[in-house]
Write a structure and sequence with these properties.
152 residues, alpha+beta, 7-stranded antiparallel beta sheet, globular
Length: 152
């Protein structure tokens, strides 16, 4: 199962970075290939994406969410994937965001792309666009401050 770990520092307080990340329906504005994210309830999302020229849809469940610290999820339908994003306050106006993703690759093309680092570059680009989005706004567009416990 391919895995990616990427991080970025953003020039906003940890609560601003975290609050913006909870606005899942805005992910298409900075995630390449993500066409739509619908938040179905506090812990369930429906994703629509164009990946390698293929239309993909899947549902995901947020398995853990702690304000200003972490959000973890896993796919419940479609191609298997899971991940966690953590938020680390570096000072009052600077935050480090760390993202780890794991997914099931299908076929030679996806496996080769992962081996050649295409997926790492794609995620790095997504984080760069998130940085640009949040720093240019200077404030989050919304927030969800609820907690979700880690599933057993």
């Amino acid at each position: 199962m391919p895995s990616i770990e990427q991080s970025i520092e953003v020039e906003v307080p940890v609560s601003t970075a975290y609050n913006q990340w909870t606005q899942f329906e805005e992910f298409p504005s900075f995630m390449d290939g993500v066409d739509e994210v619908k938040q179905l309830d506090d812990t369930h999302l429906h994703w629509v994406a164009s990946i390698g020229g293929h239309h993909e849809e899947w549902d995901a469940e947020i398995t853990e969410q702690t304000p200003d610290q972490r959000i973890a999820w896993k796919a419940t339908t479609g191609k298997g994937n899971a991940g966690v994003v953590t938020f680390h306050s570096l000072d009052a106006d600077r935050t480090k965001i760390m993202l780890q993703l794991d997914w099931e690759s299908e076929g030679m093309v996806e496996a080769l792309g992962a081996m050649l680092g295409q997926d790492d570059r794609k995620v790095k680009g997504d984080l760069d666009r998130f940085k640009e989005l949040i720093e240019s706004r200077g404030a989050e567009s919304g927030a969800w401050r609820g907690e979700v416990g880690q599933s057993a």
